[in-house]
Amino acid sequence: MHDEAKPGVDVVFGLEGTSLPSDHAEALALAVAVWLPWLADEPASGIHPLRTAPTTQGMVLLARRARLTLRVPGHRAEASLALGEKRLDVGEGLRIGDGAVKALAPSPTLYSGRVASAARDERAFHDEVAGWLDAAGVRCEFISGRPRSFAVGGHEVRAYGLALHGLTPADSLKVQAEGFGPHRRLGCGIFVPHKAIALPD
């Protein structure tokens, strides 16, 4: 019997491949779901964005030491390892290596490079984030970046970078385990520890 209260974890896999389409997040999510169909039933589960370098042909190059990392509830850690040694039909193809489970570590500063939101502008997104933190009982400072867009199912989705600062260890782990906003499997709303940042007065 698994324990639903187990904290979230990252499951990290070796990764081999070359080039991918710039907007590859949806294709990656669908390819992973072939092997881990339960991922869609876990709202807090997500796929970290891949480390890539842009090119001028609408493609990106996979970083030499890129890893495929899943953020999942603790009770799904073992099941996630089934993705090891599989091939994903994304771009020219991705080969997955062995996986390892990594516990989440508390950090006073967390960052997500892509938080999806329907907010019409930065002010509205600021209010949305403030409401989320209040509802979650998390007290911290935050700053957000300008919106960027990416394609999902033929539609454009807007996302903002978001940094949280001054988190307690408990709140840091809570935010990492639960994330914020939709499209977690597309790399949105997944927070990772970040170096200290200068916040505006």
Name the assembly state.
single chain
Record field, number of beta strands: 13
- The dominant shape is globular
Order of helices and strands: EEHEEEEHEEEHEEEHE
Radius of gyration: 17 Å
Structural class: alpha+beta
Residue share in β-strands: 25-35%
Distance between the termini: 49 Å
The largest beta-sheet arranges its strands as 3-6-1-8-7
Q: How would a textbook summarize the main sheet?
A: 5 strands, antiparallel
- Can you give the mean pLDDT? 90
The low-pLDDT segments are 1-5
Written overview of the protein:
There is one protein chain. This protein has 201 residues and is an alpha+beta fold. The protein contains 4 helices and 13 strands. It has helices at residues 25-35, 77-80, 122-136, 169-178, and strands spanning 9-16, 19-21, 46-47, 52-54, 59-62, 67-72, 87-88, 94-103, 109-116, 141-144, 148-152, 155-165, 192-193. The strands form 3 sheets. A 5-stranded antiparallel β-sheet has the order 3-6-1-8-7. The longest helix has 15 residues, at 122-136. The termini are far apart. Residues 1-5 have low confidence and may be disordered.
Give the arrangement of secondary structure elements.
Layout: E1 9-16, E2 19-21, H1 25-35, E3 46-47, E4 52-54, E5 59-62, E6 67-72, H2 77-80, E7 87-88, E8 94-103, E9 109-116, H3 122-136, E10 141-144, E11 148-152, E12 155-165, H4 169-178, E13 192-193
Antiparallel strand pairs: 1-6, 1-8, 2-5, 3-6, 4-5, 7-8, 9-12, 9-13, 10-12, 11-12
In brief:
This protein has 201 residues and is α+β, with helices and mostly antiparallel strands. The protein has helices at 25-35, 77-80, 122-136, 169-178; strands spanning 9-16, 19-21, 46-47, 52-54, 59-62, 67-72, 87-88, 94-103, 109-116, 141-144, 148-152, 155-165, 192-193. The strands form three sheets. It has a five-stranded antiparallel β-sheet with strand order 3-6-1-8-7. Strands 9, 10, 11, 12 and 13 form a five-stranded antiparallel β-sheet that branches. A three-stranded antiparallel β-sheet has the order 2-5-4, with no helix packed on it.
